[in-house]
Amino acid sequence: MKPPVESNSSFVCPLPTSPDSQTVSLAHGEGGRLTRQFIRERIVSRFSNETLAALGDAALITVGSERIAFSSDGYTVTPLFFPGGDIGRLAVFGTVNDLAVTGAVPRWIGLSMIIEEGLAWSVVDRILDSVQAAARQTNVTVVTGDTKVVPRGTCDGMFITTSGIGEIVTPVGTGPSSLQVGDVLIVSGPVGRHGAAIMNAREDLGFDPSPISDCASVATPLIELHRTSLTPRAVRDATRGGVAAVLHEWSEASGLSCSIEESLIPVSTEVRAVCELLGLDPLHLANEGTFVLATSHHQVDSTLSLLKHFEVTRDARIIGEVVPRRIVPVVLRRSIGSDVPLDDPAGAPLPRIC
Amino acid sequence: MQYLDEYRNSDLLKTQLANLRSLITRRWVVMDVCGGQTHSFLRSGLEAALDDVVELVHGPGCPVCVTPAQVIDDAIDLAQRNTVIATFGDMLRVPGSTTSLLQARAAGGDIRTVYSPIDAVLLAQKNPGLQVVFIAVGFETTMPSTALAVAQARQLGLTNFSLLAHHVRVEPAMRTIMMMPANRIEGFLAAGHVCAVTGYQRLSQFAEQFRVPIVVTGFEPLDLLIGLTECITSLEQNRTEVRNLYPRAVHPEGNSHAIKWIDEVYQIATVPWRGMGEIPDGGFVIRSEWRQFDARHRYKLDLFGNDDDAECRSGDIMSGRLKPHDCPLFGNRCVPDHPIGAPMVSSEGCCAAYYRYTAERKMHQ
To answer: Which CATH superfamily groups domain A56-168?
Structure first.
C-alpha cells in the first residue's frame, strides 16, 4: 500500500456548481454526494442544531430522563411489489433498521399513506397486511398515521412515510467521527440485492433467476450487539448509494480513508449478473437489510461470531479497514494488488450503452 | 461466473504480468481503441501495474464521448416539442452545449431510458399518439440493433418512430490519428466488440500501410494482458500483423448477418466527432430508402459540426499526444460532473477514467 499523503481537498471532492442547474434532479435523491450536499447546504444550515447535525439514521433525543431514538423516512418504490418484498415491508423494516443502527430497540411507528386515486383496494389491503406482518415480526406497534388520496397521475400508486421511536438500551457509540486507523470494516451480508431486484423488476429486464431484495429487519442482531459489551464505532444501513456511499460518508466524518478489498466483498451471482451486463457496481446499489459496521480490531472476532449467529447477518464478513487519510477517501484493492479509488455515487446508477 | 472469473483470476494475472514484463526491452506506446478497454485497464489496476514498462494511450473509442454536443441539443429541442426521447442511460448525463438530457427531463421533457432500441419501437407501438425518437449512437457494435429497430418499425407500419442517429466508425479514427503530425502510436489493441461485428480482415491493410501490429483484444483484465503481451511481442520482433486474441467472440469475417443489416439501413459518410473534428468516412447516415425513420429528415435538423472549447485538448489526448493531466482544464474546469471535453463526458472516456482512478498517481508526480 502506498504511504499516506497529505489530503488535497480540492481534488478529493470537487463539486462544481453547475450554473445551469436551477432545478432538483433525480440525482439529488439517490444518496451519495449530491444528496449529502443538498442536506448539508439547504437543510442542516437552516435548522442548525446538534441533534440534526449528527446526521444519523435516527436522532438521539432526551425526553425527561429517558434517551430515545426518533426517525422519519419516506418510501417510494416502483413496482409496489417486488421479489423479496413490497412497499409495506420496506417501510416497516426501513424504519426499524434506522432505529436499530443507532442502538435503539424499535417500539412505535407512525404510518402515513399517500394513495393515488384509482388504486385497487386489493392492493391497499395487501400492503397493509404486509405492514401488519412486518410490525408483528419486529415487535413494533403502529400507533399513529395519516391517509391522503391524491388525483390520478400525481403519485405512483402509493407513497408511504413513517416516523419511528425506539428506546435506547445501552450507551450509544460515538459514531463515524470516532473511527480510528486500524478499525475493521464489516458488511452484514451480500451487497446490492435490493437495488438489483428493483431494477430487474421495474425495467422488466428479464434476469432469471431474479435477484431477490434483502428487505429485512436487522434489529435483532444489532440489539444483541448493543446488549453485550460490544461497542461498534459506527453502524449504518447501506440504503441509497449502497456501501460506497456509507464509506464515503464515514471518511468525510472521520477525516480518514476506508480501504476495502475486492476479493472480500460478498456479491450474489444474481446481482453480479445484473451488474456485469449493465456496467454497474454492486457497491453502489441500494440495500434494505444490510449494514456496514466499523469496530476496533480487538472486538472483530466476537462481533462477527455474534452476527453469524443470526439468519439475517449470517454472511457477515470483513471487507477492509480504516487507514490514514489518503488522497482518495475510499480505496478498493484489486485482486492483482493495485489500489483504485471507489467512487462516491453521484446519482442513480445508469446502465451503459456497451 | 463463467467467462468472467477465469479472466479475472489473480494468479493467472500475476503470472501473465511477470511474463509481459520479462519480454519488454523498452517502453512501447500502445493505443487501446475502445472506451471499455480503457475503463477496464484503469478499473482493474492494470494500467498502474504496467505504467513503468508500457505507455498506454487511450483512443477515441467511447461513442458517448465523441457524440457531438449538437446531437444532445437536438434531442433536447425535440423533447420540448411534444416528442418522447428514448435513449440508453449513459447519454443522460452528457452535456450538450448548454444542458443535459437529465436536466431537460427535470425541467419537464419526456425523456425515457431504454435498454434496447427495440424497447423504443415497442414504446411507439403502444403509444400511437406520441412521436418517439431514439438516440442511436455507438460504433458498429450497436448499429445492428438500431438497424433492426427501424426494420421492425417499418414491418409494424409505425409512423411515429424515428432515429436521431450518429453512428461512428473506428477505423477512420485510427487512420486520422496515425496521420497526425507527431503521432507516437506504435501498436494497437483493436476493439473486440466492434471486430465481433465487422471482423478484422480489413485491418491487415491498415497494419501494412502504417507498419503497426494490431491485436484484436477483449475486455476482461486477462484479455487485456494477453492482447497487450501479443502486441508487445510483435513490436519486439518487428512484426506488423493483425492477430486475434479474442477468438471466443470474434471471427475474421465478423458477423455477416449484422453487417448485412448495417449496410441495408446506413451508408458511410463524413461526420463530426466531438473533440476530433470531422473525420473522413468517420461515420454513417441513414440511407434515403429509410428516410421516413430518420429524425434529421423528419424534423429538418441539420448537423452543423462542433463547437468545442478552444482550451480543451481532447483531440491531443485521444490521439495520444498528451495525457489527460497535461490539459489545462483537467480536474478544475473540466470534471465528470461538469465535463468540457469529449473524453470527460462518459465514465468510459479516458479523461473521466483518469480522473476517477489516478488521483493518487497524479498527486505523487
So the answer is: PurM-like, N-terminal domain (3.30.1330.10)
Cell of residue A25, nine digits: 434532479
User: In terms of CATH architecture, what is A176-341?
Assistant: Alpha-Beta Complex (3.90)
Cβ proximity of A192 and A246 under 8 Å: no
* Closest alpha carbon within chain A to B8: A335
Nearest to B140 by CA among B291, B243, B58, B33: B33
Q: Which grid coordinates belong to A91? A: 417501510
In terms of Cβ atoms closer than 10 Å to its own Cβ (0-12, 13-18, 19+), residue A119 is middle
In chain B, the residue whose alpha carbon lies closest to the alpha carbon of A327 is B360
Chain B residues inside the 8 Å CB shell of A12? 359
> What ipTM goes with this model?
0.74
CB < 8 Å from A in window 130-169 of B: 137-139, 141-142
Residue (of B145, B181, B176, B177) closest to B163 by Cα position: B145
Of B4, B338, B359, the CB nearest to A11: B359
- Residue A196's CB is within 10 A of a number of other CB atoms, namely 32
Using a CB-CB distance cutoff of 8 angstroms, which residues of chain B are in contact with residue A14? 331, 335, 337
Is residue A322 classed exposed, middle or buried when 0-12, 13-18 and 19+ CB atoms within 10 A define those classes?
A: buried
Percent of chain B with pLDDT over 70: 97
The per-residue pLDDT for range B302-316, each reduced to its tens digit, is 877 666 677 888 888
User: Given an 8 Å threshold on Cβ–Cβ distance, is B98 in contact with A20?
Assistant: yes
Residue A20 has pLDDT above 50, yes or no: no
Q: What is the pLDDT of residues A290-304, one digit of tens each?
A: 999 999 999 999 999
Cβ pair B360:A327 closer than 8 A: yes
Quick check: B75 pLDDT over 50? yes
Taking only the tens place, the pLDDT of each residue in B51-63 is 899 999 988 888 8
> For testing the chain A interface, which of B337, B344, B362 should be mutated: the one with the most A CBs within 10 Å?
B337
- Predicted confidence (pLDDT) per residue in A197-231, tens digit: 998 998 788 888 899 999 999 999 999 998 888 88
The radius of gyration of chain A from alpha carbons, rounded to an integer in Å, stands at: 20
Q: Identify whether the C-beta of residue A61 lies closer than 8 Å to the C-beta of residue A99.
A: no
- Closest residue to A336, CB basis, from B14, B337, B347: B14
Interchain CB contact of B365 with A (< 8 Å): no
pLDDT by residue (tens digit) across B210-244?
999 999 999 999 999 999 999 999 999 999 999 99
Q: How far is A24 from chain B, CA to nearest CA, in Å?
A: 7
For residue B63, the chain A residues in CB contact (below 8 A) are 353-354
Q: Which residues in chain A touch residue B103, judged by CB atoms under 8 angstroms apart?
A: 20-21, 23, 25
Answer whether A56-168 and A176-341 agree in fold: no
The pTM assigned to this predicted structure is 0.83
Q: What residue spans define the domains of chain A?
A: 56-168, 176-341
For an interface test with B, the pick among A15, A23, A340, A343 (most B C-beta atoms closer than 10 Å) comes out as A340
CA-CA-CA-CA dihedral for A240, A243, A249, A254, to nearest 10: 160
| Average pLDDT, integer, range A68-85 | 95
